[in-house]
Specification:
Elements lengths: L1 H29 L3 H27 L13 H28 L9 H28 L2 H33 L7 H28 L6 H12 L4 E11 L4 E10 L4 H18 L3 E11 L2 H4 L5
Parallel strand pairs: 2-3
Antiparallel strand pairs: 1-2
Length: 302
């Protein structure tokens, strides 16, 4: 059910981006609005990003197989990295178009271009709230990346609306400086989109490089492991994100005199205890070491 909701959200994002891309490029071209045109080409990149996210979401849900024993969860992380690159390229393009606009006489602002920017702003804000809510509820990296892509469009559309609005005021009252509100808005959009691209790219690279989960999460796992009475000591605890789920790797010491069956039962209890409290944990790999009371055996092995 959760996967279905994510896929539907992905399709809605893809179709919306196609419609907004066509609308912005056509209106931006007809009424010579640099920021709206640049935003339209940015949206064209969003179409690719939405398609990549949608594809990755479908791939990530495939079960583990012989070639991918840990599953396909990182497919969504790869799509997140692709979205970050597309946002970075879009920011460069918007910056170029905006700077070049300063070397030409300002175009006459259009009310239709302004209304298009406002419409895009409203639509993208709705899409952002919708996709981020579903993305976080199902922990879908691909959908969360799509949501942040919508957020970048919110910034772009807001700047476009303000810029074109200022240009309209400048045209009406004869304030030439305001006539350059359109390209100035484009520069502001560049900074915001670059920042978003950097943050998304860094998070994707951290996951691909198998960075450990945050210390607070490890502390939660530690408390759950020690809630199993037979665990004497944690020798090593690691956890990493693998797309929309987490893999936990544990070495723990238990009484060395226990039978293999008893050790097996302890491992199963540890795994079930962690997964019952954290539904985003897909696998807990447990290795048991023998523990001996020094007072009884004169040794302490791990």
């Amino acid at each position: 059910m959760n996967n279905t909701k994510a896929i539907i959200a992905g399709w809605i994002s893809l179709i919306s981006n196609i419609v907004l891309t066509i609308l912005k490029i056509v209106i931006g071209t007809i009424f010579h609005s640099p920021v709206l045109l640049a935003d339209g080409y940015h949206n064209a990149g969003d179409v690719v990003a939405s398609g990549a996210a949608l594809t990755s979401m479908r791939i990530s849900q495939r079960p583990a197989d012989e070639d991918h024993p840990y599953g396909h969860g990182k497919a969504e992380v790869i799509s997140s990295a692709i979205v970050a690159v597309i946002l970075g390229v879009a920011a460069i393009y918007i910056a170029y178009e905006s700077i070049m606009a300063f070397f030409s006489p300002p175009e006459k602002a259009s009310v239709i271009a302004f209304m298009t920017a406002v419409l895009s702003l409203i639509a993208k804000q709705i899409l952002y709230v919708y996709t981020i809510r579903i993305g976080k509820s199902v922990n879908s990296k691909g959908l969360i990346a799509t949501a942040y892509d919508h957020l970048a469009d919110v910034y772009a559309s807001l700047a476009a609306a303000v810029g074109i609005g200022l240009a309209l005021v400048g045209d009406h009252y004869g304030f030439m400086i305001l006539s350059y509100g359109d390209p100035i808005a484009g520069i502001i959009v560049t900074i915001l989109v670059f920042k978003l691209a950097y943050e998304m790219g860094k998070e994707a690279m951290d996951t691909l490089m198998e960075k450990s989960v945050e210390p607070e999460r490890l502390e939660q796992y530690t408390a759950l492991i020690f809630s199993v009475p037979e665990v004497k000591r944690i020798d090593r605890l690691r956890a990493r994100e693998h797309g929309h789920y987490i893999l936990v790797d544990l070495r723990a010491s238990v009484d060395g005199h226990l039978t293999i069956q008893e050790g097996h039962d302890i491992m199963r209890t540890i795994k079930e205890t962690i997964m019952a409290e954290h539904d985003d944990v897909d696998e807990v790999l447990v290795h048991l070491n023998p523990w001996y009371n020094k007072n009884l055996a004169g040794q302490d092995e791990n």
